[in-house]
Amino acid sequence: MDPWRTAIVSSSDGEIRVRGYDVTTLMQRGTFTDVIFLLHRGELPTPEERRLLDAILVGVADHGSGAPSCATARLAASGNRGALSAAVAAGLLAVGDEHGGAGSNCMTLIADGLARAGREGIEAGAAARRDFDEARAAGRRVPGLGHRLHTSDPRTPVLFGLARQAGRAGLGIAYMEALAEAAQTRGLTLPINIDGALAAVLHDLGFDAPFGRLIFLVGRVAGLTAEVAEELSREKAMRIKVPVQYDGVPPRDLP
Amino acid sequence: MDPWRTAIVSSSDGEIRVRGYDVTTLMQRGTFTDVIFLLHRGELPTPEERRLLDAILVGVADHGSGAPSCATARLAASGNRGALSAAVAAGLLAVGDEHGGAGSNCMTLIADGLARAGREGIEAGAAARRDFDEARAAGRRVPGLGHRLHTSDPRTPVLFGLARQAGRAGLGIAYMEALAEAAQTRGLTLPINIDGALAAVLHDLGFDAPFGRLIFLVGRVAGLTAEVAEELSREKAMRIKVPVQYDGVPPRDLP
Amino acid sequence: MDPWRTAIVSSSDGEIRVRGYDVTTLMQRGTFTDVIFLLHRGELPTPEERRLLDAILVGVADHGSGAPSCATARLAASGNRGALSAAVAAGLLAVGDEHGGAGSNCMTLIADGLARAGREGIEAGAAARRDFDEARAAGRRVPGLGHRLHTSDPRTPVLFGLARQAGRAGLGIAYMEALAEAAQTRGLTLPINIDGALAAVLHDLGFDAPFGRLIFLVGRVAGLTAEVAEELSREKAMRIKVPVQYDGVPPRDLP
Amino acid sequence: MDPWRTAIVSSSDGEIRVRGYDVTTLMQRGTFTDVIFLLHRGELPTPEERRLLDAILVGVADHGSGAPSCATARLAASGNRGALSAAVAAGLLAVGDEHGGAGSNCMTLIADGLARAGREGIEAGAAARRDFDEARAAGRRVPGLGHRLHTSDPRTPVLFGLARQAGRAGLGIAYMEALAEAAQTRGLTLPINIDGALAAVLHDLGFDAPFGRLIFLVGRVAGLTAEVAEELSREKAMRIKVPVQYDGVPPRDLP
Fold first, then answer.
1. Which of the listed residues B240, D64, D106, D211 has the most CB atoms within 10 Å of its CB?
2. What is the overall mean pLDDT for chain C?
3. CA A209 to CA B82: how far, in whole Å?
4. Nearest residue of chain B to residue C88 (CA atoms)
5. Which pLDDT tens digit goes with each residue over B155-179?
6. At D147, is the pLDDT very low, low, confident or very high (cuts 50, 70, 90)?
7. To the nearest whole number, what is the mean pLDDT of chain D?
8. What does the DSSP assignment read for chain B?
9. Is the ipTM of this complex over 0.95?
10. Residue of C nearest to B16 (CA)
């Protein structure tokens, strides 16, 4: 087999380098968030970039045991107590377009919308309003808007505030705010949720779309490990009994 | 179904609290590493504890694309490009007793060894030497020692150095150093690897054994997401061809 | 990388052979159950062996949407509708010592018990009674006995009946029946569950312990795919709301 | 939480029914393939339907240790030997659009193509040729055609032959054959692969698109369990060393 190529980590006996930096130096002087940024971007973050990434990771780490990812991890742990990595992995598998994964779809929406706006010579806000109306007319959900619990997601203004404070608020945030405004003008309660907020900020920081989902996985795994640890320490095996109501065909005999 | 009990996160419309703290405050003033500590311990870390946790998370984040977890994630991504969380989860599933998971087994070894030492009134070092010999006599691998690449794991002295500097080096480190010394005295090249090093430090910080594996998962997921992103951006689908040699029964016909 | 060795499948342009047999012949003349047996044992089953394997696979395929594996798969599908393999994989991750995985532990118990009986020159029944008492005295759960729903698992007598009819009931079944009798004599309601029943039958068919868990995975995946398909066709995304009650520290401010 | 609704399995103390049939009767008189069909369609198959489903399941069960799903499972097992369900689940996670999952995409292509043909009053063959040209013009891969090993997939003619023999060859097969013919006419070597073949047959049997991927998962899990069992019984932990070549930035110091 040909060797696999990589530009991420090199290692030899006694040495490990991440994007060129000695891992032991990073252990002494870097934070985990620095290295998350470094692994994905190839360079260390500025203090402002680190602050924004920390805020995103903290914001998505956990949202309660009942979130699909957390509940999935606890259910898996309930039947398979010995396998910690299996339960955590099961939790990650609940992350997709509908839960935790809207960030990357939203980054694509932003990038496409802004690119089209550029071609047509219109502003970010006008592009967002048009994209919103087109999506509604086509019956598509708009990623990054709406939350099943929050009528106003408290994490969004904080994240946008930090971006403004850092001087890193750009067209991504402008686009998302116009999108939410379009919803409100049309009488809909669709606040920018954390996925939409992180999508805007990551766009303005120069990340590409897949990172909008990957960063959620990195942050959420911290919550999943805590949820699994709590399940194992507080609860008995197989304690979860999901109530089920059968509504299929009545009892019958084989022919 | 009875409600699930949790002491980790509470949420209501417009508010999310992690171990009692408002998540928006944590987003502004905490680091991701603070919140990892908080989620698992219930309290925020001291600066020294944060430094040690950062060093561990950085130390385990990635060790090259060929590590079982990273290679597993890349292989899964190669056949299933659209599913980012699936590839990352596959990578976590390669983490177990043999790869990345020795930390928790080693924490159990340390805790059991020190407990027995306490009961018998002997020192940590003497306990470690006895445990080492007992394991070897029984043909058991000693978790936390040895590495398939490094004759001396460069991350171990750095981590122990940080613990000493922070005034948090305790019986865990003493035990592991005696274990490695026992190996050396008996003519074996079995350096303390990163799993053994983090086990010692986490023991001295008061963590329980499962956290030795969970922290590896949290750190490694950062490497896995970067490896998956690189696979998708640099390589074509299905590019990995594992060479296989068949050595089973020759061609035969059904009876 | 050295080629991987395998004795399972060989393939070249235009030809695939499973354990030496041309796959196209197997497709025309074999059943899926034949090939499951062939893959694991290297030879095709006799009609009696096929009947027993079919009975086991049918018996474990599904036990209701509320079983941990099924509920985990549905929860994952609820948040990640686009990723069918992720939801099914999540369901498998709930299979472990406590759910669906007792078969392999029970096969180890049977094999160890019978080996010791052989060394000591006692009968299977006597060995089982002694093993039962030793496990109870040590506070260990005995794998293969007890069910959270069934006071008497209806699948067990049917499977044992088929084994007797096929002339393949051996020491495995004798051991498990003695184990259940020991429980009853001691006043405990611990029927032989499907894991214990399949363990006994697979032992008598000459399978080794890991197969007791692997066969459960093969059978259950059929139920998981059906559960996931039903979730996606009948239910909306994110419809599952697990009720959660927070009982941790009250709201507090950062220092 | 409201009870979950299901029409698949009902169970109560001493009784389990699958789609209305007592599981103990199915264990005695049904095959595993019968129950796979029953779980997904709600009715038992005719002998012809059972034969076709068996042929598909056998055809996809395993294609060699180097297939992405099998290699992923073995890699995961190599680092995490104790967790059988984790390794099997990891293998399933490699199944997606590029590997093993083309069946469902192909079923959608067939259904859409035939529906459009119906609306426009043209034949299946003409629809397929047009769809092929449109896909090529747009630079899209056509699902169900081409294989990285086989210039002619030996499983396809066998499966189509069985369908014809059973009198169940319909528009699905006609469509796929016209698609392959269009490729050939345009000078391309794109044989109908097993995904395309099973898609055509399942379409003609009345299954919907997701089943094209789910059936692959059910069949492949049999190969994955065998691959994992072989890895654990023949190989040492961590034996797999993927060769890696670093081509990133050279060593550098932190600022």
1. D106
2. 95
3. 13
4. B86
5. 999 999 999 999 999 999 999 999 9
6. confident
7. 95
8. -PPEEESSEEEETTEEEETTEEHHHHHHH--HHHHHHHHHHSSPPPHHHHHHHHHHHHHHS-S-TTSHHHHHHHHHHHH-TT-HHHHHHHHHHT-BTTTB-HHHHHHHHHHHHHHHHHHHT--HHHHHHHHHHHHHHTTPPPTTB--SS-SS-THHHHHHHHHHHTT---HHHHHHHHHHHHHHHTT----B-HHHHHHHHHHHTT--THHHHHHHHHHHHHHHHHHHHHHHHHS-TT-----EEE-SPPPB---
9. yes
10. C251
- pLDDT band per the 50, 70, 90 thresholds, residue C2: confident
Q: What tens digit of pLDDT does each residue of B43-82 get?
A: 999 999 999 999 999 999 999 999 999 999 999 999 999 8
Size of interface B-C (CB pairs under 8 A): 111
Alpha helices in C186-209 (DSSP H): 194-204
CB contact under 8 A, D80 and B90: no
Helix (H) or strand (E) holding C64: none
**If contacts are CB pairs under 8 Å, which of residues 51-110 in chain A contact chain B?**
53-55, 57-59, 61-66, 71, 74, 83-86, 88-90, 92-93, 95-96, 101, 104
> Which residues, in sequence order, are CB contacts of C146 under 8 Å at separation 6+?
C189, C190, C191, C193
Q: Which residue of B has its CA nearest to A33?
A: B32
Whether D94 sits inside 8 A of B90 (CB atoms) is: yes
Contact list, B249 vs chain C (CB under 8 Å): 7, 19-20, 42
Task: Find the mean pLDDT for residues C216-223.
Answer: 98
Question: How far, in Å, CA of B220 to CA of B106, rounded?
Answer: 18
**What average pLDDT does the structure give for chain A?**
95
Closest CA to A111 of A206, A248, A8, A47: A206
C-alpha span between D43 and D35 (Å, rounded): 9
Gap between the Cα atoms of C246 and B5, Å rounded: 6
Q: What torsion do the CA atoms of A89, A95, A96, A99 make, to the nearest 10 degrees?
A: 170
The C-alpha of D27 sits at a distance from chain B's nearest C-alpha, in angstroms, of: 27
pLDDT of amino acid C227: 98
End-to-end C-alpha distance for chain D, whole angstroms: 55
Structure tokens at B219: 């750190």
Chain C residues in contact with D71 by the CB 8 A cut-off are 4
The pLDDT assigned to C238 comes to 87
Q: Which of B27, B22, B25, B53 is nearest to B40 (CA)?
A: B53
Residue B219 phi/psi, 5° resolution?
Answer: -70, -45
Residue D253 Rama label (left phi>0; alpha psi -120 to 50; beta): beta
Residue B164, judged by CB atoms within 10 A of its CB (0-12, 13-18, 19+), counts as exposed
CB-neighbour burial class of residue C229 (10 A; exposed 0-12, middle 13-18, buried 19+)? buried
Contact D79 B98 (CB under 8 A): yes
Residue of D nearest to A7 (CA): D248
From the list B237, C197, C92, B86, the residue with the least C-alpha distance to D221 is C92
Q: Are strands B4-6 and C244-246 parallel, antiparallel or unpaired?
A: parallel
Which residues on chain B are in Cβ contact (under 8 Å) with C242?
1, 4
Residues of B in contact with A227 (CB under 8 A): 6, 8
- Write out the two tokens for D7: 């029409």
Determine contact, residues C86/A96, Cβ cutoff 8 Å: yes
Interval C48-60: pLDDT, tens: 999 999 999 999 9
DSSP state of A249: P
Residues in chain D: 255
pLDDT band at D60 (very low <50, low <70, confident <90, very high): very high
Which residues in chain C touch residue B244, judged by CB atoms under 8 angstroms apart?
3-6
pTM of the model: 0.97
Alpha-carbon gap: A178 to the closest alpha carbon of chain D (Å): 33
Is D244 in a helix, a strand, or coil?
strand
Residues of chain B with pLDDT under 50: none
